[in-house]
Task: inverse folding
């Protein structure tokens, strides 16, 4: 596909035909603010924060949806553009709680970052106060505070485009518009799979994991990139850690195997790490009681018992149940042990953890 030349804030770049101004700005190294845009979602241009001036025209265009053309000249930081963005941000803040000091998303809120960048301390528009947070939705994974929702539709699009669950949508109109379970029900009665993709893409504190409530602000947490332990797919995830404890799991959009996607287990199912019932050492039975043992003692006992059972009752007296938390390679070795060494085909895999 033939490239086109575009000039953005005086920087000329060549980008593929069909690219948007926002795509071209990233190639040029020019920062254009956005709220509804997300790299994992299709652009919709609903927040209007990415407005830019094109070819000197007075009508501003949304950079995330406007396609580039040969010789186009774009200005992203002229007075008209900055004033338009301030106007839009103040409208968003008109009925948004200004509780940044105590908000659990402080330090990781995109709306807060833009308000700081444009020097907005309060809105000049008298907004209608939105009633308090919704009653609990009876889901154990995340909280939704519709007072902080800016209707960017990221969550709705993620539910549709990434997960395909179609569990949430925008209901009502005007000031009464809000994100809700489809047909106005509750999430547990909808097609929601609680994968948490809506939480992952939310730019404000409207959607947060329950584990983050009161756990601290982003700058108090350390981010650690790792691999999800739940199955052999090998999803890349980012852990938010404070005081040597996992506070939450967030999407790593550069993950090779999952591109930021997670399931409910990978995003919310990590509390087993500190669970009081978790076994941390091998246990063997002596005199009818389970007692702690060393690894060598436990493995020798298992090996001797396997050999003895196979000798007395034949190999089909043995069965192997592997774990979804193992890698594909480890599960392959389990079946190799069963079939190749002990001559039994009684092998199953628990992928339902």
Result:
């Amino acid at each position: 596909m033939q490239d086109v030349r575009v000039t953005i804030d005086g920087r000329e770049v060549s980008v593929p035909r069909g690219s948007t101004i926002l795509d071209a700005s990233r190639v040029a190294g020019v920062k254009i603010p956005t709220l509804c845009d997300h790299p994992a979602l299709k652009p919709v241009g609903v927040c209007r924060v990415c407005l830019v001036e094109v070819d000197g025209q007075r009508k501003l265009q949304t950079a995330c949806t406007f396609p580039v053309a040969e010789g186009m000249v774009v200005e992203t930081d002229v007075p008209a553009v900055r004033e338009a963005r301030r106007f839009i941000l103040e409208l968003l803040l008109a009925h948004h709680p200004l509780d940044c000091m105590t908000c659990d998303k402080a330090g990781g809120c995109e709306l807060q970052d833009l308000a700081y960048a444009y020097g907005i301390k309060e809105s000049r528009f008298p907004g209608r106060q939105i009633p308090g947070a919704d009653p609990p939705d009876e889901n154990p994974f995340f909280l939704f505070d519709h007072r902080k929702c800016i209707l960017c539709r990221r969550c709705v699009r993620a539910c549709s485009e990434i997960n395909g669950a179609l569990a949430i949508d925008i209901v009502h109109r005007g000031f009464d518009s809000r994100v809700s379970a489809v047909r106005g029900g509750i999430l547990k009665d909808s097609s929601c799979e609680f994968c948490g993709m809506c939480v992952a893409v939310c730019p404000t504190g409207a959607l947060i994991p329950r584990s983050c409530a009161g756990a601290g602000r982003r700058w108090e947490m350390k981010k650690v990139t790792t691999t999800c332990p739940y199955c052999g797919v090998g999803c890349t995830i980012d852990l938010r850690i404070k005081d040597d404890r996992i506070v939450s799991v967030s999407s790593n959009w550069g993950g090779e195997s999952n591109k930021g996607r997670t399931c409910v287990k990978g995003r919310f199912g990590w509390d087993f790490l500190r669970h009081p019932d978790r076994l941390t050492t091998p246990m063997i039975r002596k005199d009818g009681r389970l007692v702690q043992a060393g690894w060598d003692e436990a493995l020798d006992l298992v090996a001797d018992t396997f050999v003895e059972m196979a000798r007395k009752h034949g190999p089909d007296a043995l069965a192997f149940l592997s774990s979804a938390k193992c890698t594909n390679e480890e599960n392959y070795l389990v079946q190799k042990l069963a079939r190749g060494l002990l001559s039994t085909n009684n092998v199953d895999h628990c992928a339902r953890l």
User: Anything to note?
Assistant: The radius of gyration is 27 Å. The CA atoms of residues 89 and 240 lie 29 Å apart. Residues 221-276 form a domain with the N-terminal domain of TfIIb fold (CATH 2.20.25.90).
